[in-house]
Design brief:
- Residues about 15-20 have low confidence and may be disordered.
- The chain has 1 helix and 8 strands.
- It has a 4-stranded mixed β-sheet with strand order 4-1-7-8, with no helix packed on it.
- It has one helix spanning about 1-20, and strands at about 25-30, 35-40, 45-50, 55-60, 65-70, 75, 80-85, 90.
- The longest helix is centred in the first third of the chain and has 19 residues, at about 1-20.
- By secondary structure, the protein is of the alpha+beta class.
Length: about 90
Amino acid sequence: MKKLSALVVLGISLFSLTASAAVTVRYYNRDSKKHSFDAVCSGSHYTVTFDGSTTSSTTIQGSGPCKVKDAGGEVTLKGGENIEIKDGRIQVK
């Protein structure tokens, strides 16, 4: 029984560690082309890609908040946002 409890605690700990190490957003890309933007999350650099003419979700594998550089400047994403992309610019809805 103690072994099962230890495994459950370990599983929950790993899940919470994994959940906090990523930023997931739901997006709608109004542009017909795919966009790839540079993102910085807790000092680490990543590239996030949004497919063209698509509604979907994407995950940045860094710890939030993440600063994403788009055509209009920089947007901060913490995770859970709904965003819209138009003319290469990200808008948080």
